Amino acid sequence: MSTTETSIKSKVAAVSSTPLAERMKLTLNYDELTNCMRCGFCQAACPTFQETGYEAASPRGRIALMKAVVDGVMEPDKMFQEQMDLCLGCRACEPVCPADVKYGHLLEQTRDAIEEKAAEHRVWVKALRTTLLKHTFPFQKRMRILGGGMKLYQKSGLRWLARKSGVLKILPVHMQQLEKVMPEASTKGVVEHLGTFYPAKGNPIGTVAMFRGCIMDVMFTETNINTVKLLSEAGFDVVIPETQNCCGALQAHSGEMDLAKDLAKKNIRAFEAAQVDYIVSNAGGCGALLIEYDHLLHDDPEYAKAAKHFAEKVRDVSQLLLEKGNLPALNLLSGKNDNGQSKPVTVTYQNSCHLKNVMKAGNAPRHLIAKVADVNFVEMTGADSCCGSGGIYNLVQPEMSMQVLDHKMEHAKETNAHLVLTSNPGCLLQMQLGIEREQLSDKMQAVHVVDFLAERILEKQ
Ligand code: SF4
Ligand code: SF4
Q1: 95 CB near ligand 1 (under 6 Å)
Q2: Is 203 exposed, middle or buried (0-12, 13-18, 19+ CB in 10 A)?
Q3: Hey, what's the torsion of the CAs at 50, 107, 263, 424, to 10 degrees?
Q4: What is the pLDDT, as a whole number, of residue 118?
């Protein structure tokens, strides 16, 4: 054996012996890695590649990095982890891939391995992740306490004091702007308002169970209430299982797979008892994990079958209203003022990446919006590409998140829309943040599609 061969072999042996590389060999689906034929069709769809122009910040580049680690020809060094962290997890690379590479699953498996073996987060990022992902979102009672704390801050004068005193200036600029656009929080969720059962209006055409979410239920309680009422209006009996919890999406996307699986199992048990036709989500990010519970638990002998059964029933609320709802009863009409005159409004739509790329239902909200009279719908350039929210991405990767958002807002401004409609709480906050950054809040507002429809349907009764 030549000296060079010996040197390469010893280098490969040294690289492949790192705990992270060993873990990745065990967890990554090698067939999926080799399915990538390096055509590069995914690059135009990738926001981080578009922003940086770096191969390593593209789907093809990231897959090549993963494969190089698994093959033992590259050490999973700091640069490797940075590129995995920089990915938005938007999965825009999947629908355009001719080889049907499941990039999202590869990313989750890689992040899971990194979390277990080699995560090197900045101290504040680590603290934020642990507090939110492990100790807050999974617990309904703690979410209520968080909602209560935020409500106290918003209503007691503390917010006024914090803004007036300038103490918020210790926060980064984007956090100061985010503080301004946070919705009114609540200590009560949808169940506390409507109970665990809400009957269909008229003869029921089916029974659905509502997934209320963790953040949705304390920060967007009104949207949850409107979701139930719209479903009822469309002919569904609505059940809201009380023992459900956070879907696990934020945990799964951040490499906390064991925690995500535990949350999924609790939800499967909670919804199993309800015996419903569909399980409905009003948040693209949550729905996308709920619909993949079968993948998440595919190797769990106890839960695999139940997870498949659960996943088959999951629908986004817009999709269900459009495809199965009693639309004549919905009687979608325009908003009217007190004199019965119509109020024309210009709207645009920012798609939820996970609603489009995973649930494959990104056009359902567009079709519903189109049914509302007196709406001037203006399609936004790049409406289907990520807004930079990405779960907690805008908190832990603020530079890239704001870069993506600022480009998004250039297109939003071109529409001259009064309303930017979205189907996910993260997108809603991010778009409202963009509106704030552009100082457009007197002209433009981000609104959930459900609230937009509810205002035009429910308040007529
Ligand atoms: S489009 Fe698919 S096959 Fe082509 S480079 Fe991207 S991931 Fe690989
Ligand atoms: S998930 Fe989004 S950001 Fe990540 S590689 Fe795919 S397209 Fe790019």
Answers
A1: no
A2: exposed
A3: 10
A4: 63
Residue 228 · residue 234 · CB < 8 Å: no
Tell me: do 72 and 151 sit in the same domain. no
Ligand 2: residues with CB < 6 A are 45-48, 59, 62, 87-93, 103
Give, for 280, the enclosing helix (H) or strand (E): strand 278-281
Please give the Cα distance from 398 to 231 (Å, whole number): 36
> Which amino acid residue places its CA nearest to atom 2 of ligand 1?
97
pLDDT at 2: 44
Centre of ligand 2 from the C-alpha of residue 24, in Å: 19
| Judgement on whether residues 303 and 369 belong to the same structural domain of the protein | no
Could you tell me the distance, in angstroms and rounded to a whole number, from the CA of residue 387 to the centre of ligand 2? 12
Of ligand 2's listed atoms, the one at least distance from the Cα of 62 is: 5
Distance 106 CA to ligand 1 centre (A): 13
Q: Which ligand is nearest to the CA of 101?
A: 1
- Of 114-128, 141-155, 345-359, 378-392, give the lowest mean pLDDT range: 114-128
- The end-to-end CA distance of the chain, in Å, is 85
396 Cβ closer than 6 Å to some ligand 1 atom: no
Q: Are residues 345 and 441 in the same domain?
A: yes
Domain extent for 372 = 333-460
Same domain, 111 and 206: no
Overall average pLDDT of the 438-461 stretch: 87
Smallest CA separation from ligand 1 atom 6, residue: 42
The domain total for the chain is 4
Q: Quick: pLDDT tens for 393-432.
A: 888 899 999 999 999 999 999 999 999 999 999 999 999 9
Q: pLDDT-based confidence at 7, cuts 50/70/90? A: very low
Ligand 2 center–CA 247 separation, angstroms = 22
Ligand 1 atom closest to Cα of residue 38: 5
- Segment 329-340, tens digit of pLDDT: 555 555 555 555
**CATH assignment of the domain containing 35:** 1.10.1060
Q: What is the DSSP string of 261-279?
A: HHHHHHHHHHHHTT--SEE
Q: Do 439 and 383 share a domain, yes or no?
A: yes
Report the nearest-CA residue for atom 8 of ligand 2.
46
Helix boundaries (H) for 87-244? 103-117, 123-129, 140-155, 158-165, 173-181, 190-194, 215-219, 221-233
Mean pLDDT of the chain: 88
